């Protein structure tokens, strides 16, 4: 049976203003399309197609990763978002960015075609074998990664996964991460705060309103980010590819700094005391 996971989709902060122009990286979907032996029961369970994706408002670009696994050996712990969250979003969106280092290792024998559509009918036509024009298509692959065409970026996106061999069984993992601009709305500013990067390096960090769904930001050295969020609570953590730091509860109306804590021998978040 298909497993579908939607993440956040900007529900935890609808608005934000930043002193440093930044984009937010949001994990949108991790979808497992399972191909089983063709029989009546499995055919009823396999509601795989077409699959709808709702992109966040302000999406400026979307990245995909496709990986084919054996049904009994599926990598569920590693995610595309985890790898991208430490990269400067401006770098990700540049033409010619090399996504190949972020490919996942497949172990399935099956090759698949994955087609993306902005229209549900076109996606359904393609799935049923009719002619349909996709906004982006990946053909005959076991492992693929890259950036979707600009024509695919809208409020709704659909994709269809087709296997090349009839008898082969497999699970296809499709991941989509969105890069979006933050909308500003001075009415929804009940949770303002700022973060100053006092380190000599750029910092990747994540913000969450529920400690489950996280959104990645990137703060250059010696720069400040100012937020005005439509939320009632906010948590933050510093990110690396391998792990994330401890979670910090951010209080509304306060100013914070990222600095090197010699006692902890790690990056830390501290409050900036208001000037008297």
Topology at a glance:
Blueprint: E1 3-6, E2 24-35, H1 40-45, E3 51-54, E4 59-69, H2 80-84, H3 89-92, E5 112-117, H4 120-127, E6 136-141, E7 143-147, E8 156-163, E9 170-180, E10 191-197, E11 203-208, E12 215-219, E13 224-229, E14 234-238, E15 248-250, E16 255-261, E17 266-272
Describe the structure.
- It is a single chain.
- The chain has helices at 40-45, 80-84, 89-92, 120-127, and strands at residues 3-6, 24-35, 51-54, 59-69, 112-117, 136-141, 143-147, 156-163, 170-180, 191-197, 203-208, 215-219, 224-229, 234-238, 248-250, 255-261, 266-272.
- The chain is elongated, with a radius of gyration of 21 Å.
- The protein has four helices and 17 strands.
- Strand 11 (203-208) and strand 12 (215-219) form a beta hairpin.
- Give the tally of β-strands: 17
Sketch the major β-sheet: 9 strands, antiparallel
Mean pLDDT, as a whole number? 83
**Number of alpha- plus pi-helical segments:** 4
Radius of gyration: 21 Å
Question: Percentage of helical residues?
Answer: under 10%
Which oligomerization state do the chains in this entry correspond to? single chain
Series of H and E elements: EEHEEHHEHEEEEEEEEEEEE
**Uncertain spans:** 1-21
Structural class: mainly beta
Structural shape: elongated
Proportion of residues in extended strands? 35-45%
Span between termini = 61 Å
């Amino acid at each position: 049976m298909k497993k579908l996971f939607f993440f956040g989709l900007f529900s935890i902060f609808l608005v934000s203003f930043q002193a440093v122009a930044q984009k937010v990286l949001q994990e949108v979907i991790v979808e497992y399309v399972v191909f089983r032996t063709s029989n009546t029961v499995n055919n009823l369970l396999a509601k795989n197609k077409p699959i709808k994706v709702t992109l966040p408002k302000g999406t400026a670009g979307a990245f995909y990763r496709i990986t084919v696994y054996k049904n009994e050996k599926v990598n569920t712990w590693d995610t595309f978002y985890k790898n991208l969250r430490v990269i400067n979003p401006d770098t990700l969106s540049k033409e010619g960015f090399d996504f190949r280092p972020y490919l996942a290792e497949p172990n399935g024998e099956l090759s698949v075609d994955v087609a993306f559509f902005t229209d549900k009918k076109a996606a359904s036509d393609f799935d049923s074998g009719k002619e349909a024009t996709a906004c982006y298509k990946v053909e005959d692959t076991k492992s693929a990664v890259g950036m979707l065409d600009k024509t695919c970026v809208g409020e709704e996106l659909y994709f269809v996964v087709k296997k090349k061999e009839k008898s082969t069984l497999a699970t296809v993992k499709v991941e989509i991460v969105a890069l979006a601009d933050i909308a500003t709305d001075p009415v929804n500013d009940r949770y303002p705060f700022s973060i100053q990067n006092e380190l000599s390096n750029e910092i990747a960090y994540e913000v969450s309103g529920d400690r489950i769904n996280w959104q990645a930001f990137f703060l250059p050295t010696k720069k400040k980010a100012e937020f005005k969020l439509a939320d009632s609570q906010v948590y933050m953590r510093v990110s690396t590819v391998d792990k994330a730091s401890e979670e910090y509860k951010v209080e509304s109306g306060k100013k914070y700094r990222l600095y090197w804590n010699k006692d902890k021998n790690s990056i830390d978040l501290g409050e900036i005391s208001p000037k008297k």
